[in-house]
Amino acid sequence: ANRGPCQSGVVRALLECGANPNAQSNEGSVPLLLVAESLVNDFDNAGAVVPLLEFGADPNYQDKDGLSPAHLFAHSNALDALKVLIEGGASLQTWRKGDLTSIGHTPLFSAISKGSLESVSLLVNSGALVNQIEATDPYAVTAVGYAAALLSTDILDLLIEQGGSFCPEIGTHNILHTAILNERVAILRHLFDRHRHLASSPEILQGFNQRMYTPLQAGAACKTRSRPQMVSELISAGAILDHRDLDNPISRTAVAVATEYGAYESLIILLKSGANSLCRGPSIAWKWSFRNEAIIHIADNTFGGRFDELIRMTKPWILRDDLLNTRDFRGRSILHYAIYRGRLAYVKTLIELGANIEDVIFTPPLEENDPNFDIGEKKWIGLNAYQFAVILCKEDLEEEEEEDKVEGQFYWNEQIVHVVEYLELVLRVKDEGALQIPQIYLS
Q: Which parts of the chain are ANK repeats (predicted)?
């Protein structure tokens, strides 16, 4: 049956002569499944379904891959055969395990994958569960989410009218996350235009997925050309700009996410819309949680190669919010980090923009039993930028001598030396007293 057309009369005659309607082939298939496969291949063998069912063919047989006749009839949009199969007792909740391929997990998913509104309508009206998901799959999507991913707006509307859920359960991908991850700007617009009361509800628009991303944060992290459009759509729909889970240490704002991923166009949209440039959340580039961290810190930590671009694009907010002198949980400003890395060009840029060269590293607001507290850094507290650079250079040169000049280390020390020379020139003009090195470091 799967190789070409067959005649229902011949099938009936064979069955009347005692042929087994559930006989398995060497590959583990059965006649009813072979008929379904032939329909996928555009052979009209639907007439064989009736006699097979009359003589006891199992309408719910599944092969080794979990495929049932209902999956294949739905996928081939064989409405008459599917209707007969349903009347013959086929289960519409038959689950096909494994990856969500073009065939789909359930017959309903199969019909959605083919874009057949008629098959979807038949299945839903016949009792197919619109919110059935794989309970063990943390990234499971509902039929609504699947239709959104495939840009099937007619099917999407039908499923929503039938009670289709926008979110499998709290803490998982909802329909907005799915649309974003699949770059479906048109679906986002459709949802907010046609189903705004659902799509803009707090549990959906501000809901977190497994990565602790709201849809807005997911949009900021998405590496696509349509990222700015998606961010704009979500903001227009009412997404809370600085929303994050305050009780979860890995949750961070959309501004922090956009900065980490180098999504500077999205970052500008967020800042222009009123998002806070102080991210106050952790960075995925580090194992600990930053506190009171600004976009300028995150860009330096994760996208050093694009630091100049961030400065250029966000300069108005950097100056407005005094981000140059904002401290992170270690009590350091961005100038201290630029010095620590020996980035002379960055040091010059920051000072020209207004970073305070005389500002000192202060005591971080951490207890000594805090896992983020590094007791070794206590020795730097109270040092200004120049003193910090000198001590760094001195300590690393001493380590270099002890380690017999580890390969690659000298270049870094050389960069620190250039930073020291530049800072010394600046301070000689501003305040020569700031050039004094505390006696404790000279011994």
A: 65-97, 103-135, 330-358
Asked if 63 and 96 sit in the same domain, the reply is yes
Task: With cut-offs at 50, 70 and 90, classify the pLDDT of residue 238.
Answer: very high
350, 320: one domain: no
Calculate helix-pair angle for 153-161, 185-194, nearest 10 degrees: 40
In which domain, by residue range, is 263 found?
Answer: 241-326
Residues 28 and 141 in one domain: no
Tokens 């009209």 -> residue: 44
Residue 101 and residue 1 share a domain: yes
CATH code where residue 255 lies: 1.25.40
Residue 256's alpha-carbon distances to 181, 281, 311, in angstroms, are 19, 7, 15
At 191, which helix (H) or strand (E)?
helix 185-194
Token digits for 209?
A: 């997925």
Query: Which DSSP symbol is given to 242?
Result: T
6-49 pLDDT, tens per residue? 566 677 777 778 788 788 887 878 888 888 887 665 556 567 88
**pLDDT level of residue 138 (50, 70, 90 thresholds):** low
Task: Check residue 378 and report its DSSP letter.
Answer: G
Distance between CA atoms of residues 174 and 191, nearest Å: 12
- Measure the CA–CA gap between 320 and 276, rounded to whole angstroms: 11
- With a CB cutoff of 8 Å and minimum separation 6, the contacts of 140 are 133, 134, 168, 172
pLDDT at 240 over 70: yes
Compute the average pLDDT of residues 315-327. Answer: 88
Residue 221 falls within a domain, yes or no? no
- Type of residue numbered 145: G
Q: What CATH number does the domain containing 69 carry?
A: 1.25.40.20
* pTM across the whole model: 0.79
